[in-house]
Specification:
This protein is of the alpha/beta class. It has 2 domains: 184 residues, no CATH class; 107 residues, 2,3-Dihydroxybiphenyl 1,2-Dioxygenase, domain 1. Helices cover 60% and strands 10% of the residues. The strands form 2 sheets. The protein has a 4-stranded mixed sheet with strand order 4-7-6-5, covered by helices on one side. β6 and β7 form a beta hairpin. It is elongated, with a radius of gyration of 24 Å. The protein starts with a helix and ends with a strand.
């Protein structure tokens, strides 16, 4: 982790994405323990990592990244909670979560949520975090101790005491949420997108960063910077965000191109790309007053080439 933190502090977005991937479940668990709402916890997790990236230069000891990111998540969660009427929000959620014609299974799920909240009310913030980090995020007691500034014996003692308050199905329900790869990757993708947007750069999703980097470099002669990112002719960086196939599918299902380039002659460039085996399509929609051609990368991302008539 030390090397990833150092690289991220120098602007390596891919290194920071790995940190997000490693700590997202733990940060979500910490936020959930305070907010009691899984979707809000995901929002706070995103805010935590975005804030952390912009403040990473202030972290003097890279080995303390875990406890540092935990403290950011805790502060943001408390601030978020203070801005809302938690009881009104939870009450409204109970009314709106299930339609009136809900099934028996739906009622059972609602009852379990209420039972979980009832059990959580018996624990303080730190004890909730310990349970979630150990049983759901599967963090070792030594790492939990570092995150929460507790000794291993103290963590072990609290686990033994509080484990009796929680039923096995509660912990299993939490694990289904926080342990899901799709949830983790969604957070990684959103955090990286926001970081890149704030920097005024460009990004596209890919399933293999190395393959796509080679493809863009070969097809368009794009240079590669010291961090392994592609440089566009106008001076911007093109970030390739590696995502899971299901996240990739959501992007390629869109009819809109991920990027549109203004060129002198779209037809000529498209002919060259076609000769090189790139999938090319003419845009016949007439949505632009000039000529627009679409081409596709190996993952199916659609790009536009636009030239004025």
């Amino acid at each position: 982790m030390h090397a990833l933190v150092k690289a991220a502090s120098h602007g390596d977005v891919e290194a920071f994405a790995e940190l997000v991937r490693s700590y997202s479940n733990s940060v979500c668990a910490v936020a959930y323990g305070i907010l009691r709402d899984y979707h809000l916890a995901q929002d706070v997790a995103q805010e935590t990592f975005v804030k952390a990236f912009s403040s990473l230069h202030t972290l003097q000891d890279p080995d303390k990244f875990g406890s540092w990111i935990y403290s950011i998540a805790t502060r943001l969660s408390i601030d978020w909670k203070r801005k809302q009427d938690r009881q009104a929000r939870l009450g409204q959620k109970l009314l709106s979560d299930q339609p009136l014609h809900t099934t028996e299974e739906g009622f059972k799920q609602k009852e379990m949520r209420m039972d979980i909240w009832s059990a959580l009310d018996q624990l303080d913030k730190k004890n909730r975090a310990i349970l979630l980090l150990f049983y759901v995020c599967e963090k070792p007691m030594a790492e939990i101790g570092k995150l929460l500034h507790l000794s291993v014996n103290a963590v072990d003692s609290r686990l033994r005491r509080n484990r009796k308050l929680m039923r096995d199905e509660f912990l299993a329900a939490w694990a289904d949420q926080f342990g899901a790869v799709s949830s983790r990757e969604a957070i990684v993708t959103e955090v990286v997108k926001r970081i890149i947007k704030q920097a005024g750069q460009y990004y596209i999703p890919v399933t293999s960063r190395s393959r796509s980097t080679e493809w863009f470099s070969d097809q368009f002669g794009l240079p590669i910077d010291t961090n392994g990112h592609l440089k566009l002719p106008m001076g911007h960086t093109l970030f390739l965000i590696q995502v899971e196939p299901d996240v990739m599918a959501a992007w390629t299902d869109s009819d809109l191109p991920v990027l549109v380039f203004h060129v002198e002659n779209a037809v000529t460039i498209s002919e060259v790309l076609s000769e090189q085996g790139v999938r090319v399509e003419m845009d016949e929609s007439g949505g632009f007053p000039g000529c627009q051609v679409h081409f596709f990368d190996p993952d199916g991302n659609k790009f536009g080439l636009f030239s004025e008539k």
